[in-house]
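FORM 12-B: Structure-to-Sequence Request
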């Protein structure tokens, strides 16, 4: 389906979104003036594919236990997996531990300010590097997460949802809309993200409350429904992900070695259970200690 972009004057777009953000931004601990770059990095790892309300208690407990990268690096990676709890996608915990170890060993325990150095950290991709450089160090970077991409898709391109993978056209749009002033660009990055999280949501967008409703290309087009490839839904019940979560829960609660029999009790299908356990071992989330005995990684 052909789409046309709308020419929203950039200064109007900037002032509208920034004014809305100043009045509506959530009070989140990683946004406070006291939040360290490490706090921002931890929040970005936790917020990947996980909503804020689930992240908040886990984030608070994590930062209380490990307020610095060196504090986390001093503990075994299994403790990171244990503290990750039920946030989901627990490989993020191992990657965050690996990043903390690299920061401690290579950067004197301080999260690096340089974008390239951030990008070189374990588990840090283009989005996370740009987000930390922008949010923690107030630099000028294009920060493209799902929320930002959705706002630009609707307001600028006139379609309900962006493509499933980030396109070059999206990056050109985001780059073209990035304010020239560095300090303004850093606020802009989080402001657009907040608009997508609170108003221009994936389901049930509150268009009547949107500050861009008069300039929005999707509104001007009559809010045409999405016509692209089928969007992937996330399932959980009965999947290997669910089995992995149940197995990890037993290991997190054990604080030591766990015999096979205790793991066997959490799921009735032996084939799926074995596959899930093998996957956890392959991902480094679980260590075999002896035949039929397992623990979190040391």
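FORM 12-B RESPONSE
SEQUENCE OUT:
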């Amino acid at each position: 389906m052909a789409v046309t972009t709308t020419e929203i004057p950039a200064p109007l777009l900037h002032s509208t979104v920034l004014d809305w953000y100043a009045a509506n931004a959530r009070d989140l601990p990683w946004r406070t003036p006291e939040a360290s770059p490490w706090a921002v990095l931890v929040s970005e790892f936790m917020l990947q594919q996980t909503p804020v309300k689930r992240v908040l208690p886990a984030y608070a407990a994590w930062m209380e236990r490990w307020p610095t990268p060196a504090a986390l690096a001093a503990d075994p990676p299994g403790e990171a997996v244990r503290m990750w709890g039920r946030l989901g996608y627990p490989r993020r915990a191992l990657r965050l531990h690996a990043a903390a170890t690299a920061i401690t060993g290579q950067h004197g325990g301080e999260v690096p300010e340089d974008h390239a150095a951030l990008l070189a950290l374990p588990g840090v991709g283009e989005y996370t590097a740009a987000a930390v450089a922008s949010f923690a160090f107030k630099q000028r970077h294009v920060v493209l997460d799902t929320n930002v991409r959705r706002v630009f898709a609707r307001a600028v391109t006139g379609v309900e949802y962006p493509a499933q993978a980030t396109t070059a056209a999206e990056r050109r749009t985001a780059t073209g809309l990035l304010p020239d002033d560095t300090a303004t660009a850093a606020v802009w990055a989080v402001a657009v993200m907040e608009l997508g999280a609170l108003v221009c949501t994936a389901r049930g967008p509150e268009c009547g409350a949107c500050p861009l409703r008069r300039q929005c290309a999707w509104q001007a087009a009559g809010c045409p429904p999405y016509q692209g490839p089928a969007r992937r839904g996330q399932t959980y019940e009965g999947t290997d992900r669910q089995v992995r979560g149940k197995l990890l829960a037993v290991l997190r609660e054990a604080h030591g070695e766990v015999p096979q029999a205790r793991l066997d009790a959490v799921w009735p299908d032996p084939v799926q259970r074995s596959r899930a356990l093998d996957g956890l071992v392959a991902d480094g989330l679980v260590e075999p200690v002896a035949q039929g005995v397992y623990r979190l990684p040391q």
